[in-house]
Amino acid sequence: MFEHGMQVMVMNNAQFSTPRSPLVFMIEDDLSMRELNRRTLTRRGMNTLCAETLAEARSLLREPFDLVLLDLILPDGSGLDFVPEIRAVTAAPILILTSKREEEDIVKGLLGGGDDYMTKPFRNEELYARVVALLRRVQMAETRGREPRKFGRVTMDLAAGRAYWDKRDMLLKPKEYALLWELLAHRGEYVTGETLYEKLWGAPAMGDDHTVRNHIYQLRKKMGDAGCALTIEQEKNKGYRLAME
User: Fold this and answer.
1) Measuring CA to CA, which residue among 205, 164, 160 is closest to residue 184?
2) N or C: which end of the chain has fewer CB within 10 A?
3) CB of 119 closer than 8 Å to CB of 101
4) What is the value of pTM for the model shown?
């Protein structure tokens, strides 16, 4: 079951926006509970992907879900035992939903890899609020991880994919930006053309350095146009190196 919704979710007077509607993977065997949760989420603009058993859930693990709603008691096993399989493919938050109320079960669920825990029955608005809170936590962590990085007078804007010398935009294309990032990451060291090609183009280099050389040429030119004082050195059999100040 895969439902489509709006692009913006609203909770009270606050808005929670994403580039696309979040996909919530719900593993729940109780049909009435599954439908109630699905309606609660889809009314607020989220997509849902549903499974009734662990076997069905395993077949859907490759889907690009953003959060998991996981029941612990399922027809073919324990949801808690399924957590490591989820963690093997994604770091998406897991919200455990169960009728178990013992403190030991709650602790076991959280220590076993769950990010939050709700006991049944629960109110629809609380479920929605917990889901939004977990998604926001992920969004904030990703934003922090994509803050601009400075290398001397070079600033790499990870979110926008732009590179600046002081405050002057170098106007790099995506592959040129990626090349500069790799050279900055290995600043002072030589990186072979084959290594750069395989990392940036995702295919074997096959001994052809032509593509990398052309992009290095364009990168050098744009760095110079922006007044960048750094140089990209090239040495046979060693590759390319960014000479830092």
Assistant:
1) 164
2) C
3) yes
4) 0.53
